[in-house]
Amino acid sequence: MSEKHENDTPEPKKQLHKEDQHKNAALQMSNLGFWAFLNSNFGLFVCSSVVLASFSFGYHQWIKHQSDQRKIEQLDIEISLRLRDMSVLAQLPDRNRYNNVENIQRVDEGDSRKFWIRRPAFPEYKDKNTTSLMWQLYLLAPAEDRPEVRRAIDQSIQIDRLIPQIRLKATSEPELPPAKTKEQQEKQDEEENRLKKDFGQNDLFNLVIQLAESRRWKSLTAGQPIK
């Protein structure tokens, strides 16, 4: 009786042993099939396609990043130069002049038709408003830089709104009687050019100076001569 008991193997253990054998065999077949697939022409084609697609995607992302960085640098340079030039005009000793407000507007809009207005550093920014350049910069800038650019945009929008208001109020003043001589006309033109009261230009000058002091752009033109 004891010999029979020692030779008998419990049925559950046999069943588990067989299941393990089946699993191992299936795993071996699966591995063999996988390697066979990789070594086949189609498998090599699929693998090479995946590798090439990954490389192509990574390369294009890198190219885009480089292009965006260059665009950011160009925008920063152009905005910095404009703010510097506008700030200089806003701090002139005789800044309360109508043509001074006009010149600030010309710089702001990238309008270099007057010979004393600096041409844009990059031709593609000609006749483009500074606010629009800041919006382009905002879309390209990293997330951590966007709040600073957004605050600058708000200030630039205020400048854009103030300038036409100042010009409209100044030109709405009563006109002087017609001059009789060329000398009188020159004196009259000079007199009309002066802004004898505040039409909002002091707010404009303060905004321009404040915006030009932005850390992002001030350092770019520090020590650069004004042309």
Structural class designation: mainly alpha
User: Helix fraction?
Assistant: over 70%
**What share of residues are in beta strands?**
under 5%
Number of strands: 0
Ends distance:
114 Å
The Rg value, from CA coordinates, equals 37 Å
Number of helices: 9
Question: Stretches where pLDDT falls below 50 for ≥5 residues?
Answer: 1-6
What does the average pLDDT come to? 81
Q: Outline, from the CA principal axes?
A: elongated
Q: How do the SSEs run, as a string of H and E?
A: HHHHHHHHH
The biggest sheet amounts to: none
Write a brief structural summary:
The chain has helices at 2-7, 11-39, 41-90, 98-109, 130-140, 146-171, 182-193, 201-212, 215-221.
Question: What do these coordinates show?
Answer:
- By secondary structure, this protein is an all-alpha fold.
- It contains 9 helices and no strands.
- The protein is elongated, with a radius of gyration of 37 Å.
Topology:
Elements (H helix, E strand, L loop, with lengths): L1 H6 L3 H29 L1 H50 L7 H12 L20 H11 L5 H26 L10 H12 L7 H12 L2 H7 L6
Helix pairs in contact: 2-3, 3-4, 3-5, 3-8, 3-9, 4-6, 5-6, 6-8
Keywords:
227 residues, mainly alpha, elongated, disordered N terminus
